[in-house]
Write a structure and sequence with these properties.
about 450 residues; alpha+beta; 5-stranded antiparallel beta sheet; 5-stranded mixed beta sheet; 9 helices; 12 strands; about 55% helix; rod-shaped
Length: about 450
């Protein structure tokens, strides 16, 4: 089946690197795991084969020793009957020319030693004839470094004595060790070759996944949702690539709609600005501008996943100023308060007069919520500085309600209500302070 092409340019078309050589890559991890499993399987198989080889070789030498002992017993049978020790010794001397022999001993029917020979470094052992040897063909004792064989000596079917032969297994052990070493070297070479082959196979098999991962990183970095993954084969990874492309298509469509909406809102904002949406008294933007600006900044906050805050500011004791000193003094207080608050704001903050002694402050692109709280403290302090109109000190202050987008609300009307409720909580807490919407109701 031919490979299925991608919708648009994919990771290969973008010349993205296949990141199989990265330290923590999927290719390396799977290669390492497969190599570990392969190595364990080969080592276990090698161990079993080596054990079987050793046991088989030892059994073969034991069987050879048993046959040799039986032949020697047949030769010694008449010598035992006629007690010809000289001939028996000569027979043993010819037999022990085999390098593996450690000891050979012939016992008479009375279980007394008749003739024996032992190697220079070997020690003759005191031993008793195994029970029932006269009826048995042979008895074999296997040890780590030697084998001992007992065979009955018979003449014309009558048991006339016993023969014990002890042979060394050291040469066999050395041979097996050499074979095991050679096999281990071959296994090491095979594992090294398998490692290189597995890297190639894993890299080719996982190339579509690595390519899809690289594409996802590129999309995340440049926010270009027009890119598409290449669907190489209609398998599980191919279906994953198709779903990824569908997701990118939906995100691209949503982004286009948001951009269109933002452009319309920006055009509307420009029209509102052209209509001089400013408060005539304080020269701040008015409530109508505030509403459009709040929607615009909240949309940007949600789209860019940035923290934004809204302050609802109400002046304290402003009614007292109007009642005692007149509305002209009240107007001057509003103008001075607007100037003081503007001086402590950042360049992109938006301060609006909502009406009467109420102000709204939009704080876009905040690094954290603590920055908004610190600004609220500075703003309250600026308003509380002594304010004179004529010769009279105006007893004004500021109470602030603070709400965040998107942590508190994502709807402009609801965010404004949340900030208003927080402001009234601050009023009940003693004025000239602030409260957060998330803390409103705690007293």
């Amino acid at each position: 089946m031919p490979p299925v092409s991608g919708v648009k340019t994919g990771a290969a078309a973008m010349n993205l690197p296949i990141r199989g050589e990265i330290q923590h890559s999927l290719v390396r991890r799977l290669t390492r795991l497969n190599l570990q499993v392969l190595s364990i399987a080969m080592v276990l198989s090698f161990g079993l084969i080596a054990a079987m080889l050793w046991l088989g070789a030892r059994e073969r030498q034991a069987h050879s020793a048993e046959l040799s002992a039986q032949l020697l017993a047949n030769s010694l049978a008449p010598m035992l009957v006629f007690e010809d020790r000289a001939a028996a010794s000569a027979e043993l001397a010819a037999f022990v020319r085999r390098g593996e022999v450690l000891e050979v001993q012939a016992l008479s029917a009375g279980r007394a030693p008749f003739v024996q020979w032992s190697a220079g470094s070997a020690r003759a052992l005191e031993r008793s004839v195994p029970i029932g040897l006269d009826q048995a063909q042979s008895v074999r004792f296997m040890r780590l470094a030697e084998v001992e064989v007992w065979v009955p000596v018979k003449l014309k079917g009558e048991w006339v004595g016993s023969l014990v032969l002890r042979e060394s297994l050291q040469e066999l052990q050395l041979l097996v060790l050499k074979m095991v070493g050679a096999a281990a070297l071959l296994i090491a070479v095979a594992i090294a070759i398998a490692w290189r082959a597995l890297r190639r196979v894993q890299r080719r098999a996982l190339a579509p996944i690595v390519e899809l991962s690289s594409l996802a990183e590129q999309v995340s970095a440049d926010q270009d949702f027009t890119r598409r993954a290449i669907v190489h084969w209609p398998d599980e990874v191919g279906r994953l690539s198709e779903r990824f492309n569908q997701m990118l298509q939906r995100v691209e469509t949503t982004q286009a709609e948001l951009n269109l909406r933002l452009r319309k809102e920006q055009e509307a904002g420009q029209q509102f600005e052209q209509l001089a949406h400013r408060d005539a008294l304080t020269q701040l933007p008015n409530r109508l501008y505030f509403q459009s600006a709040l929607e615009r900044h909240m949309a940007l906050s949600c789209q860019n996943v940035e923290l934004m805050a809204l302050m609802f500011i109400d002046l304290d004791n402003f009614k007292t100023v109007n009642d005692r000193h007149g509305h002209e003094a009240g107007d001057e207080v509003l103008r001075e308060v607007a100037r003081r608050m503007s001086r402590v704001l950042r360049g992109n903050d938006v301060l609006c007069r909502l009406g009467g002694d109420e102000f709204g402050l939009i704080l876009p692109a905040l690094p954290n919520d603590a920055a908004a709280e610190q600004l609220a403290v500075r703003l309250i302090a600026a308003v509380r500085e002594p304010l004179y109109v004529g010769q009279h000190l105006m007893p004004v202050g500021a109470t602030v309600g603070l709400a965040f987008c998107p942590t508190d609300e994502v709807d402009p009307a609801h965010l404004l209500v949340a900030a208003d409720v927080a402001m009234y909580e601050a009023k009940r807490a003693g004025k000239n302070t602030f409260r957060r919407a998330s803390h409103a109701g705690l007293g």
